[in-house]
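question for whoever is on the cluster today: can someone run the full assembly for these? two chains, 542 residues total. i dont have access anymore since they changed the login thing
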Amino acid sequence: MIDYWPLLGIALVVVGFALRFNPLLVVAVAAIATGLLALMPFAKVLGVLGHGFNENRNVTLIYIVLPVIGLLERYGLQQQARALIGRMRSATTGRLLIVYMIFRQILAALGLTSVAGQAQTVRPLVAPMALAAAEKEHGELDEDTAERVKAMSAATDNVGLFFGEDIFIAVSSILLIQGALKVYGIELTPFELSMWAIPTALCALLIQSVRLVLLDRWLARRPR
Amino acid sequence: MINLHWLYLFAGAVFASIAVGSARDSDNRKRWGNAAFWSLLAASFWFGDLIGDVANGVLVLALVALAGTHLLGRPAGQTTSNEERQAFSERFGSKLFVPALIIPLTAFFGTLLFNYTPLKDSGFIEPKSVTLILLGIGVIIGLVACYAWLRPPPMAGVDEGARLADAIGWALVLPQMLAALGAVFAAAGIGATIGTLAGAIIPQGSIFLAVLLYALGMVVFTMIMGNAFAAFPVMIAAIGVPILIHQDGGRAAVIGAVGMLAGYCGTLMTPMAANFNIVPAALLELRNQYGVVKVQIATAIPLLICNIVILYIAGYHL
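^ ran it for u. tokens below:
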């Protein structure tokens, strides 16, 4: 007999996010509820949660770049990124982001996933450049337009990363797939697996590029 | 040997400096809440391995209490005005990119240098964390370069780091919290339960329907867990191996690789993948915290359809 009660923890997460409670609070409450529903003692739940948090500190590591980025912003990094794009005649938001996406996919496919990213490159460089390219064509952007351009900059980074990294043979997800199949006696080399990430990578590039071209058209149609 | 532990000590120092900078921000009514939050995070990086699991759990609850009772607040303004920044950018020009690019370039060329020279066997850096460690070294070089060249006031690095961190706020630790939630889910056997449920609803006889359910299962479970890595072992056990590979004779490499990529389409559509979807909204100061997820859906759905087609054709018909 399977115990379905712990699944309520998932429901708590979904409801909590939907009602826009503080996400940290939602996650903590869901974790404790899930543990208790699985009949773990409270101290055990706390221990599993604490252990999981401590073991995953590498996830938060990337924010050590903040002081450098902040210092450079103090001296006009974002303004300079904008000025640079302003001088490039043919730069549009869409074209710029397509070029960035290709770079991001290639770097990720070479295993260099943390070379670029939301904190390292998107906030200080890519988003200001995308905004500047839109402004060049369009004059001052209203808030909705700026919001859309910034969101697409972040999205392009994510799509490039996700659908580039699995081409690299030593990335953790390829090793995970290999390991998970090995349990069932299915032996595959990382190379066989990473090869099959290529068709999806090309589809991702194509789809995101179409969307970015459409973004350019959408920007061009917006009233000045 | 330099390993991740050294990097954690450095990260602890950075978060401690952010705590100091937050406390110095006297225009911010909630500066003490911010300072307490970053101090706890610094303590986690410094002492997390020494204090034991339950104490770490208590630390997590303290972080949550600060965030949940709205004791954190965004900074009131910026340290230099837009006009000053414009003037600075005209004075320093494109050389401003140099310190920003030092960080990724150190990581990039450092990793290549490390992997293709005898350095790899020298035992100087732990091989599996080499890029992250080089990123840390890049940050140190970048900081030194900023101070040597821009000559900011001594505490500027501390204040600017705090300004950015306070703007992101609690979202900065959400990804790590979700990873901890994943650990609790695993301990409670959530994965096995969902796998059993998914396995029970598979229809017999249609390869395409089985492929469809496998891909959608990856998406839905990834959206719930915020992570395709958590979904994969469950779906491969429930549908991938027994039905798609053994019963229907699909090509294992395709079922594995493209199944995972179908899961990534789910990652694009869920707030649970906070480091990719929620943190950037804070970093870029979007009004809608779900703004990034919203624009990603129109990429994720066509890409998911591509993945299903690739699974079906490359898995069974090539």
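summary bc i know u wont read the tokens: Chain B has two domains: 4-172, 175-316. The mean pLDDT of chain B is 90.
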